[in-house]
């Protein structure tokens, strides 16, 4: 009996530990944004418990079976998201990323079109172009042979911000704040 007590506990190999780490990494990616520090702390504690449980199960039934018992990553992520934040939580970070992406895309398109317009002026021989509307912004390019300048009216830029606000609200699913919780 003393021989069993002195024997070291079985350890998982590098490949098995990598499989567990990969599964937990995919779970991290599948979770919606956990923006508040409280949510993140709860997830970190749950993740540590999950890792310990998977390691213990892996020693008993093997890593492949232990991970198969957890089920698909997407389903587990949805369950943890409900456990951490509840069913009513909007996804603020996703909304912010979408809104900033829209503004960056509109800006890039405006810069590209305006730069092309200014470049065309250098080939034509300079002068001033009439005011043109590029994505709602009133823009005028001019060239004098030595350089190019661009004038823009920024008042219509408010429409860009309104569009980004709408995208933010839709992607963040802000209506979840007013949804009643499901009753059992």
Structure description:
The protein has 184 residues and is α+β, with helices and mostly antiparallel strands. The chain folds into two domains: 2-85, no CATH class; 92-178, no CATH class. The chain contains seven helices and four strands. β3 and β4 (148-153) form a beta hairpin. The mean pLDDT is 79.
Please summarize what this structure is.
With 184 residues, this protein is an alpha+beta fold. Helices cover 64% and strands 10% of the residues.
Oligomer: single chain
Content of β-strand: 5-15%
What radius of gyration results from the CA coordinates?
28 Å
The helix/strand series, from N terminus to C terminus, equals HHHHHHEEEEH
Our count of helices gives 7
Biggest sheet: strands, sense, closure?
A: 4 strands, antiparallel
Tell how many strands the DSSP assignment holds. 4
Arithmetic mean of pLDDT: 79
In the residues, how many domains can be counted?
2
Structural shape: elongated
Helix content: 55-70%
Going by helix content, strand content and strand pairing, the class is alpha+beta
- Unreliable sequence segments: none
Keywords:
184 residues, 2 domains, four-stranded antiparallel β-sheet
Q: What's the SSE blueprint?
A:
Elements: H1 2-6, H2 14-30, H3 37-61, H4 63-70, H5 73-85, H6 92-124, E1 127-128, E2 132-134, E3 137-143, E4 148-153, H7 157-172
Antiparallel strand pairs: 1-3, 2-3, 3-4
Helix pairs in contact: 2-5, 3-4, 6-7
């Amino acid at each position: 009996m003393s021989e069993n007590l002195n024997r070291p506990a079985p350890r998982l190999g590098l490949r098995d530990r990598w499989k567990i780490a990969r599964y937990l990494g995919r779970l991290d990616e599948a979770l919606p944004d956990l923006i508040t520090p409280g949510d993140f702390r709860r997830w970190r504690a749950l993740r540590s418990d999950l890792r310990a449980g998977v390691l213990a199960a892996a020693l008993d039934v093997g890593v492949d079976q232990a991970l198969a018992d957890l089920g698909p990553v997407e389903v587990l992520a949805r369950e943890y998201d409900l456990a951490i934040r509840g069913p009513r939580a909007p996804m603020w970070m996703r909304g912010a990323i979408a809104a900033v992406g829209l503004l960056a895309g509109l800006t890039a398109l405006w810069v590209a079109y305006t730069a092309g317009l200014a470049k065309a002026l250098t080939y034509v021989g300079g002068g001033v172009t009439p005011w043109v509307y590029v994505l709602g912004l009133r823009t005028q390019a001019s060239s004098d042979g030595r350089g190019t300048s661009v004038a823009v009216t920024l008042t219509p830029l408010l429409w860009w911000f309104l569009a980004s606000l709408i995208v933010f609200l839709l992607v963040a699913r802000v209506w979840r704040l007013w949804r009643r919780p499901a009753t059992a």
